[in-house]
Design goal:
mainly beta, 90 residues, 20% strand
């Protein structure tokens, strides 16, 4: 694995060369979505849904409350495309 300016390049077992952007040391991919993002209405986001629960530092989906932990892994991105369960806020 070689590290270039702002990118990582490595070769897979199959011989394919892959280039990826490096993430921060403590990056955790958000996995708190109730359903797959992008399956909802076009142009809507998780941030515009009535099921979003936001604090200053995190956003979580109320429908996925059973999966919540105290960590970042159950967060959602407010700019992620809406899922099938998206509903307009009242």
């Amino acid at each position: 694995m070689s590290k270039g300016p702002a990118q990582l390049t490595f070769t897979t077992i199959g011989g394919e060369t892959v280039t990826a952007q490096p993430r921060g040391k403590h990056y955790v991919q958000p996995r708190g979505y109730f359903q797959s993002p992008g399956t909802g209405p076009f142009g809507e986001t998780c941030g515009s849904c009535k099921h979003i629960s936001k604090d200053r530092r995190w956003a979580k989906c109320e429908l996925a409350r059973a999966k919540w932990t105290g960590g970042r892994g159950t967060d959602v991105l407010v700019r992620a495309p809406a899922c099938y369960s998206w509903e307009k806020p009242e």
